Predict the structure.
Amino acid sequence: MSRLHASDHVIVVGAGLAGWRFVEALRREGYDGALTLIGDEAHAPYDRPPLSKQVLAGKWSVDQTTLATDERLAKAQVTLRLGTPAINLDVATTTVHLADGTLVAGTHVVIATGTRARRLPFRASDRIHTVRSRDDVAFLNHDLAVLEPKSVVAVIGGGFIGAEVATALRTRGFTPIVLEAAERPLVNVLGPEVSSWLANLPATADVELRNGQRILDVVETDDGFIVSFADGGELAPRVVIVGAGALTNDEWLATSGLTIDNGVVVNEHLLATENVGAIGDVARFEWANVAGTELVRIEHWQIANDHAGSLAHYWMTGQSPTALLVPYFWSDQYGKKIQMLGHPRATDDVTRVSGGDEEAKWVALYSRDGIVTGVVTLGQPRALMLSKVLLETPTSLDRALANAPWSS
Amino acid sequence: MKVSVNFDLCTSNAVCMGIAPEIFEVRDDGYLYILNENPGPEFDSRLREAVASCPNGAISVEE
């Protein structure tokens, strides 16, 4: 039973991957009513993962990240409102208020406003780069263009973005120094064991990583910056980039009456109300998985993609996917590919089933209460995908070890 | 449908293999192989999912 009709008007707020893929999915499902896509950036929808990888490394032009090409836009028959942030949502009338003072009234609203890069409260904050948007990369490239080869660039944060950025900078001949606050990168994401197996990666790519760095401030000088540390030390990079996680873009919904709690809280169908849904990075959704059901917000490219298709299908047919959603994540860093299936916790038990400490290839199983909750691999895409079955139906660690699907 | 992969864009994430292993296989050599370039209509929905899910947009299908 379709919940959408030709007389409806679906408003999508957020023109990133989730919003754009929702537009495409809804048309593919046969929706022929009005469709409006609102975005705060001036650019037509584009893809973010390549920005910190291929684009920053100089291998792709920024245009290669475009998702909404002219041809696809024409096919989607969507009204674009770009460069106009939404500032409020009236849930009762499904009306979106824009920063330019205009109102967009519809019958259904999809919230896909995603996240933004977290900024750190240093004195030079306005001059410190992040790598989240096309404009961010343009601004960074502008500052990098005047640097001599081997110039020192400080990368604050050794997580996924920091590592990818450092890799790209090294490829371009600069000297990135990664400043990580924790005892080592990703320890709070992948846990102590798996993060320790990655500890040597930066060195293999000729990137300097400094762990346990407590930064007091960053100030601008005539030809760069001074980073000062709690132990009294200083570093004088020419450019500073921060990769310190993301914040949800949900402030505009503060007075909407929707439940906002680390994102927009939605049910298993991705709905906050019958006519208002949330998808992608900003959605805190009920996720049915092998270990039960939990409320999660997952900032993965594939989740945004998957949510878009699921909500479009639900609104057109009344049906949600029957298969469990298996989150997928990847990062290309220091010349290696880290991949993850599932959404394991840093506190889960870890069993390495292939590879050794000194190897640049391994497969790790995460488990909680004896049930497999995730698979993380380094340089083993085949083994990872062969292991997907472990997360499609609940599988005990014992049975996983006996069947060893990663080696088939 | 006719399946093709732009191998200049493919980085062997193997997401397609996770969705349609009958058509896509990343082998131990780290490269992607197309096992069936002309799959039947029973694969249509999974092929579309593979196209949309490729992180590099490397897969295309012709109706």
